[in-house]
Design brief:
single chain; 268 residues; mainly alpha
Length: 268
């Protein structure tokens, strides 16, 4: 397996420059992973499949879904891609490389764990700031146009928010100068996580059922359902920041009530 990965990587670095891989390659990888993981939830919702796992009973209209997709393509090409191009000199200066040998899995996993910790901290506080009255009204309300989120709404946001919260995602890699393959793996994991958190479904196989402190779709869906000043659940991936600062009390109360209802039904 390792030899196949190295052979594939050798092909990439001999046919494309570092700039092409880090910018165009990263953009292509992001778009591929994002739309392949997010689009199925659009069609699942339209077809009415897996309803028993849907968190909210209502569905988004076809028009609302198409609006989301159209805006996403605009934002990705007009905001995300230019940011990738502009940030290349920073990553290059900090030591990012694409050459062989590839880093070990130990190095990759340690760095990605560090990126999760950094991203969670920055995202939590940035998200809370976006829920102040003025910023919510003029910036963050765009993301909350979808009270019933589906996978692709994870990146549907005001351009200012894309830059503001996107900083949380790239800060860790920017200060460590990782190998490009580590950066790509971080991007893939992060995209899959945020799509899952916005998918609108809670399955028996959802990560939050197995990973301690992982938020996931049920946790974040609650955030989208409530009035902006009282929503709580500001965390990105793991929920310890909300727990420490008490911004998940409403969600925990609701979960406790639901568990009591389920227990009562079983008893009767």
């Amino acid at each position: 397996m390792a030899s196949l990965i190295e052979a594939g990587w050798t092909y990439l670095i001999t046919h494309f420059s570092d700039f092409q891989l880090a910018c165009v390659g990263s953009f292509f990888l992001h778009e591929t992973v994002f739309f392949l993981s997010g689009l199925p939830f659009v069609y699942i919702e339209r077809a009415g499949w897996l309803k028993k796992y849907k968190i909210q009973a209502k569905n988004n209209t076809t028009e609302a879904q198409e609006k989301c997709i159209t805006r996403l393509l605009l934002y990705h090409f007009c905001v995300n891609l230019p940011v990738m191009l502009a940030s290349y000199p920073v990553f290059s200066f900090m030591g990012m490389k694409s050459s062989l040998p590839l880093p070990s899995w130990k190095v990759i996993s340690t760095q990605i764990l560090f990126y999760f910790i950094v991203e969670d901290f920055i995202f939590y506080w940035g998200h809370r700031i976006l829920h102040t009255k003025w910023l919510y009204k003029h910036v963050h309300s765009v993301h909350h146009e979808y009270a019933m989120p589906f996978g692709l709404t994870s990146e549907y946001a005001h351009p200012a928010e894309i830059l503001f919260l996107g900083f949380a995602t790239i800060f860790g890699p920017a200060i460590t100068g990782p190998h490009l393959i580590t950066l790509w793996l971080w991007m893939v994991v992060r995209v899959l996580e945020t799509v899952e958190a916005h998918c609108g479904y809670h399955f028996p196989w959802s990560p939050s059922n197995f990973l301690p402190l992982y938020g996931g779709s049920d946790f974040h869906d609650y955030h989208h359902r409530l009035i902006y000043t009282k929503s709580g659940n500001y965390a990105s991936t793991f929920v310890y920041m909300d727990w420490i600062f008490g911004t998940d009390h409403g969600y925990r109360k609701l979960k406790a009530l639901k568990n009591e209802e389920v227990a009562d039904i079983k008893d009767n």
